[in-house]
Amino acid sequence: MKRAFPSPALAAAAVTLMASLGLMAQSLAPLNEKGVAVGALAPEALNKARPKPAFDITGTWLHGGGANNPWQFAPPPGAKLTSSAQIQFDAAKKAAAEGKAYHDDIGECWPAGLPIIMTRVWPIAMIQKPTVIYMISGFMNSVRIIYLDGRKHTDPDIVIPSFNGESIGHWENDTLVVDTTAFVDHHHWIDTGVPASDQLHVVERMKLINQGATLEIEYSMTDPKNWEGEWKWTKRWRRVDDQEITEAQCLPDLNQNLLSTGPKQNVR
Amino acid sequence: MRVLLIVSMCAAGFWMGAAPAQAHHSMAGFDRKQTVVLTGTVQEFRWENPHSSIDIDVADKDGKVVTWKIEMTAPGYLVRQGFKRTSVKKGDVATVTANPLISGDPGALFVSIRLPDGQVLPQPAASKDKAK
Fold first, then answer.
1. Which of A35, A101, B11, B27 has the CA that lies 20 to 30 A from B71?
2. Spatial contact of B87 and B129, defined as CB atoms under 8 Å apart
């Protein structure tokens, strides 16, 4: 019979690789009592008895806007930036005075990332299951996943940094509390000239108000590489039952037709 | 026929309020207090996410033809403003009103368009939702 591996050494290496892959898998989904990883959409996870959630966020939502509900996450009054972030902030103000954008990475098709992906003027489809919420933005179809299955944050030595981070939610009475970490440390901004780092920590307290017609989220954010203390904002979304999200890719040729993303209009 | 005008925000205030299209990126490069009125020949109308856009050839006062790139909002929002994929066609002689780039490059942020049959889009009662 033909051997699958030409040498015992290669076979041992393959076993080691498979074992390490298995370890990764176990770290990214919670284990059942048999030590087997169970993904959020596995029937075993979905069918497990759990307390009834306070609300079902399933629907299509659009940030409401308005004078008391800006889409920007601007530094709150009295905010103190770190010295490195202050340099960026001042440079952004200088660019604005010259009529230019500052490090407009979204304009170059970098993902918006949390938190501003939530407040772009594009609808977000939200789908809630007992174990997980999927949020798919109409803007570049950015996917955000909030796990509700009781898992902890992934080991920092294993977690894969991302623009929307790793979100873990739990219920506190009528509120869904979502804790998000594991962000990338580049091309990610809270607001114009205010960078986000890999130390960004976002806590969202989500509620449905106004008989379920309004989603309200209180944001608390820390990022010791970029600012001191905790910044807070409250934002609101409205249901847009008459809207759908569509495929919206930011493709390499897009900016050929958008002079405003060019070097004359941008400081990078 | 092909005329480039720069008018004040007050003169074009109606359309400024009706259709301040936004994009997926920063709008800092546009002068939102100015509008240009561009009459010319459409070269291309791109019906695509996250932006639509129009290329239109416009002759300046010396007769030199310049291609202006007009940045628009997403098609999903344009539909709410009365647009269809076929509303603007290559070869149409049309008049575009838009906010120009501060840099002076031939690019602008779409406000409205008058089509060859006289129809103006967006329609006055269009949705105020915008994409960015």
1. B11
2. no
Cβ separation B26–A121 shorter than 8 A: no
| DSSP 8-state class, residue A86 | H
Length of chain B: 132
The per-residue pLDDT for A7 is 56
Which pLDDT does position A65 carry in this prediction? 84
CA A161 – CA A166 distance, rounded (Å)? 8
CA gap A1, A19 in Å, rounded: 26
Confidence of residue B124 (pLDDT cuts 50, 70, 90): low
CA-wise closest residue to A46 among A148, A198, A183: A148
- Mean per-residue pLDDT, B60-82: 93
- Nearest Cα to B2, choosing from B53, B43, B62? B62
Tell me the pLDDT band of A27, cut-offs 50, 70 and 90.
very low
- Is the pLDDT at B3 greater than 50? The verdict is no
Instruction: Provide the pLDDT for residue B126.
Output: 52
Q: Which residues contact A19 (CB under 8 A, 6 or more apart)?
A: none
Q: Which of A122, A241, A246 to mutate to test the interface with B (most CBs of B within 10 A)?
A: A122
* Alpha helices per DSSP H over chain B: 13-18, 75-80
Do A216 and A206 touch, CB atoms closer than 8 A?
A: yes
pLDDT at residue number A171: 98
> What tokens appear for B107 in the block?
């690019």
Out of B22, B28, B131, closest to residue A96 by CB? B28
